[in-house]
Amino acid sequence: MTPLAAVPTASSKPAIEPGIAAARRASERASHAAAVASAWAERAGAGQAEASEAARAAQCARLAADSAARATNAEAARAFAATALAAAERALEADRRTSAAIAARLWAAEDMRLQESFHPAA
Questions:
Q1: How far apart are CA 19 and CA 39, in angstroms?
Q2: Nearest to 26 by CA among 99, 82, 97
Q3: How many domains does the chain have?
Q4: 82 found inside a domain
Q5: 60: closest CA among 81, 39, 38, 37?
Q6: H or E segment at 16?
Q7: pTM, rounded to two decimals
Q8: Is 53 a member of any domain?
Q9: Over its length of 122 residues, how does the chain's per-residue pLDDT go in tens digits?
Q10: In a domain, 52, yes or no
């Protein structure tokens, strides 16, 4: 059976919509990464600075996505979308650094526990 193809229709959406959609997706990814980083940093007691950086980058991505949606021409929309994508990448990188800080803290705690088991206090 052959699938039915959608018939293209005239759209009232501006031609700059793909850039805006990319900016919105980037903003959502950044917000999610920041929320996850913050939650894990709070639970672990490590990586708070990195999680804060992720939150700042997510806010930047959201502002850039909003600016892309309000842009009056395609060039401006693409520029704001690029800013949103770069900010989302910074948020994801900060999320990775949050994970690394948490892992380092967990390994340090495990090392300390092992050291204490090898050399018990008198």
A1: 30
A2: 82
A3: 1
A4: yes
A5: 81
A6: none
A7: 0.77
A8: yes
A9: 344 444 455 555 554 445 899 999 999 999 999 999 999 999 999 999 999 999 999 999 999 999 999 999 999 999 999 999 999 999 999 999 999 999 999 999 988 888 888 887 65
A10: yes
